Amino acid sequence: MMKPKVADKALAILIAFLLFGLSPVWGQSEDTKLLIEGAKKEGKLLWYTALNINDGDMLTKRFEQKYPFVKTETLRLGSANLLTKIQTEAKAGTFKADVIEIEGIMGHIFKKQGLLEKYVSPEAQAYPASFKDPDGFWTSFFINTHVLVYNTQLVKKEEVPRTFEELINPRWKGKIALRDDDFDTFGMMLKVMGKEKGLNFMRRLAARAWSFAAGAP
To answer: Which residues have C-beta within 8 Å of that of residue 43, sequence separation ≥ 6?
Structure first.
């Protein structure tokens, strides 16, 4: 969850709530109380999200139950389109979002471009260091697990690759489909294998691919 550089005080309440909703730690500091008072005066909040509709609606509903004095507006787009919209608004000087929820790699891009404001929720202490930006610009609140899947009608169970390296076997050339925007998996492979070995592996894997499927719109 990220705080845009141009935003109102109410956004901090939503960030704190979202983290509290998934955290065993609870504590309302004096700063948080002041933010709640500020949110009452503002009365509205706009958040941009790439969450699916059900999860997004659930979080919005629970937030408004807890803070009925804040009217929440939600804009949902796929991560790629959301990235473009936010960058376009920033260039035009019309940065509208109070809170942004988007894929992790996008948060790195926003931080690098100077589009985020530092914000550390009191509840963030319950999360492992790997879930947070070391400089306090974002905190993750869910994990997407990426796995390999195979067509059981075309591949026998005993033939399924047991390691990533087995995917490079010539027998799989033209039989692998990859997402064209799967930055997280790309980054994970570089972290696990090391930059040089990871890049070499991903290049060889791409050479085996039959197609590159489009990610979320």
So the answer is: 10, 69, 70, 71
Q: What is the pLDDT of residue 14?
A: 45
| Mean of all residue pLDDT scores within the chain | 79
Task: Classify residue 47 by burial, with Cβ atoms within 10 Å: 0-12, 13-18, 19+.
Answer: buried
Tokens 């929720």 -> residue: 121
Confidence of residue 22 (pLDDT cuts 50, 70, 90): very low
**DSSP collapsed to 3 states, 33-92:** HHHHHHHHHHCEEEEEECCCHHHHHHHHHHHHHHCCCCEEEEEECCHHHHHHHHHHHHHH
Residue 73 CB contacts under 8 Å (≥ 6 apart), including other chains? 44, 45, 46, 47
Distance CA 174, CA 184 (A): 23
| The pLDDT of residue 132 | 86
Query: What is the rounded end-to-end Cα distance, in angstroms, of the chain?
Result: 20
Which CATH number among 3.10.310.10, 3.30.70.120, 3.40.190.10, 3.20.20.150 corresponds to the domain 10-131?
Answer: 3.40.190.10
Tokens 């972290």 correspond to 191
CA dist., res. 86 & res. 128, Å (int)? 28
Beta-ladder partners of 179: 213
What is the residue extent of each domain of the chain? Answer: 10-131, 157-213
Which amino acid, 60?
Answer: T
